[in-house]
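Hey, I was hoping to borrow your eyes for a little while. No rush at all, and the record is pasted right below.
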Amino acid sequence: MSEIVSFSGVHGLCILERMTFIMVDIESDGPIPGDFSMVCLGAVAVEPGLSRTFYGQLKPISEAWVPDALKVSGFTREQTLGFAEPALTMQQFASWLSSLRAKRLLFISDNNGFDWQFVNWYFHHFLHKNPFGFSSQNLGSLYKGLVKDTFATFKHLRRTAHTHHPVDDARGNAEALLHMKEQMGLKLALD
């Protein structure tokens, strides 16, 4: 599991706050949740081996969809109509997150503005709470700060191909985060 060491208080008091990073990727059939649908999501616990993963497919929640957006996922509208009820998939995702036994979960993705809005909306809409709380992190911004270049991209650090299958994409992004830690000096403690 990933940890962040945070410092607070006077005279440098060090408080170790464990945060388990969960790299998330989603695919949708449109630009915003509610009007459009998240059709699948993948998550990877960021830790050596990247072996703990989650994958879920979700039935559309509305009649609206953008064919070009759905095409990115590789699914047809007819296929998505046969996916699991969203409440069930979100409950399964919450159960998987709980099984990690993390003190605090940290949502991170390469486009958290997009991925977070869907995951947050779906958790609150279907389960009335979000196990991640109210914040998320952006992998691209983290990398830009690490290399001190707002034009830099981390994508060359992925080893797993970016296929638009959300587990593949989350795994590739998690590989990049681990590379930042192991090869670039990012202060990130792992179990």
Remarks:
- The chain has one domain: 2-186.
- Residues 2-186 form a domain with the Nucleotidyltransferase; domain 5 fold (CATH 3.30.420.10).
